[in-house]
């Protein structure tokens, strides 16, 4: 049985910066109101004709490959996590494959929303452990700004989400650096507390004129329910990963939580008893980029010198489904 290791990280964010002040033109809100409730100061929105979910993922992937010191043709498998694909079908995995000029390797698209990165990491880890693949490219990429409505009606979600992409190169481990374990879960009991029902295949007509005006094309979120579940499930998942590998929170060098809401991350930190220097957050700059949030944060933490050789780093996420989990990695 082999082990897998994260060898390279990369990210890409659109150039268009959207401040909280900009949003006040379209809805009754303020910079202070948004910061108090979410911690977000600004986010990135894509530019039509420049950015797509797949090409942002490709740019992040190219950076990750350069940092891993591998050539593109070494990639054996592409795993692409997103809730906002370029097309209804096919998925963006094959579009990245085309942009990277790779042929005949498999491309797997997964939809686990905010936990998409963790699910993808778990899948990559298992493929490498069995010996089937040596080098896996994992991408999380989202364009969510055009799913939101900049209005009072859409305010609860419009102030939170942003666009961006992150990528990892995961290879067969050659030393003590390795993915120690992954732990992923789901419970669909309360799936409709955070979902986007339309346009959906359960209706005779997927898209109607009424949907364009009545708000039923907007995401639906019960913020209180999500907060309660996330602040319970995420710290429990981190503790599970640590205990599974014989560690405690004192051994942890860095926790990179899914960047859903700074208040959630702070509550997770408090429940785990972690110091400020043990937790990395960048939601202040990018908002919630869903499947891209952890790899973007990991890439920035790496750039800032916070990801050190031998460091013990945990990831945790919670999202629509509900889906959640954790991973523990020795870098």
Q: Helix and strand succession?
A: EEHHEHEHEHEHEEEEHEHHHEE
Shape: globular
Q: Measured on Cα atoms, how large is the radius of gyration? A: 19 Å
CATH homologous superfamily (4th level) name of the largest domain:
Thiolase/Chalcone synthase
* CA(first)-CA(last) distance: 19 Å
- The tally of beta strands, per DSSP, is 13
**Largest beta sheet: what is the strand line-up?**
1-7-6-4-5
Q: Which architecture of the largest domain would the CATH scheme give at its second level?
A: 3-Layer(aba) Sandwich
CATH level 3 topology of the largest domain? Peroxisomal Thiolase, Chain A, domain 1
Describe this structure in words.
The protein is an alpha/beta fold. It folds into two domains: 4-175, Peroxisomal Thiolase, Chain A, domain 1; 179-330, Peroxisomal Thiolase, Chain A, domain 1, CATH 3.40.47. The chain has helices at 20-23, 31-38, 53-68, 92-99, 116-130, 155-158, 223-244, 262-272, 283-286, 293-303, and strands at residues 4-12, 16-19, 42-45, 77-81, 107-110, 135-142, 164-172, 178-186, 194-195, 220-221, 254-257, 312-319, 323-330. It has a five-stranded mixed β-sheet with strand order 1-7-6-4-5, with helices on both faces. The longest helix has 22 residues, at 223-244.
Briefly characterize the structure:
With 331 residues, the protein is an alpha/beta fold. It has 2 domains: 4-175, Thiolase/Chalcone synthase (Peroxisomal Thiolase, Chain A, domain 1, 3-Layer(aba) Sandwich), CATH 3.40.47.10; 179-330, 3-Layer(aba) Sandwich (Peroxisomal Thiolase, Chain A, domain 1), CATH 3.40.47.
């Amino acid at each position: 049985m082999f082990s897998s290791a994260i060898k390279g990280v990369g990210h890409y964010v659109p150039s268009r910066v959207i401040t909280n002040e900009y949003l006040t033109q379209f809805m009754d809100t303020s910079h202070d109101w948004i910061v108090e409730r979410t911690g977000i100061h600004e986010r990135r929105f894509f530019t039509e004709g420049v950015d797509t979910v797949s090409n942002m993922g490709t740019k992040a992937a190219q950076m990750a490959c350069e940092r891993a010191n591998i050539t593109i043709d070494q990639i054996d498998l592409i795993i692409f996590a997103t809730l906002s694909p370029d097309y209804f079908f096919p998925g963006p995995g094959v579009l990245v494959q085309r942009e990277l000029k790779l042929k005949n390797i498999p491309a797997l698209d997964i939809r686990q929303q905010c936990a998409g990165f963790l699910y993808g990491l778990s899948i990559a880890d298992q493929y490498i452990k069995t010996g089937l693949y040596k080098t896996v490219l994992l991408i999380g990429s989202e364009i969510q700004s055009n799913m939101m409505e900049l209005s009072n009606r859409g305010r609860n979600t419009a102030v939170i989400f942003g666009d961006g992409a992150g990528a990892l190169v995961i290879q067969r481990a050659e030393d003590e650096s390795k993915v120690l374990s992954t732990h992923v879960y789901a419970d669909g009991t309360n799936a409709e507390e955070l979902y986007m029902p339309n346009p959906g295949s359960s209706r005779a007509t997927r898209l109607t004129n009424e949907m364009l005006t009545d708000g039923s094309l907007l995401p639906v979120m019960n913020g209180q329910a999500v907060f309660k579940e996330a602040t319970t499930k995420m710290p429990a998942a981190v503790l599970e990963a640590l205990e599974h590998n014989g560690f405690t929170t004192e051994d942890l060098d860095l926790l990179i939580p899914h960047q859903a809401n700074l208040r959630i991350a702070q509550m997770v930190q408090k429940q785990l008893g972690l110091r400020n220097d043990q937790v990395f957050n960048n939601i202040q700059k990018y908002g919630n980029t869903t499947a891209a949030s952890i790899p973007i944060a990991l890439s920035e933490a790496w750039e800032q010198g916070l990801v050190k050789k031998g460091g013990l780093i945990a990831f945790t996420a919670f999202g629509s489904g509900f889906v959640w989990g954790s991973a523990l990695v020795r870098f």
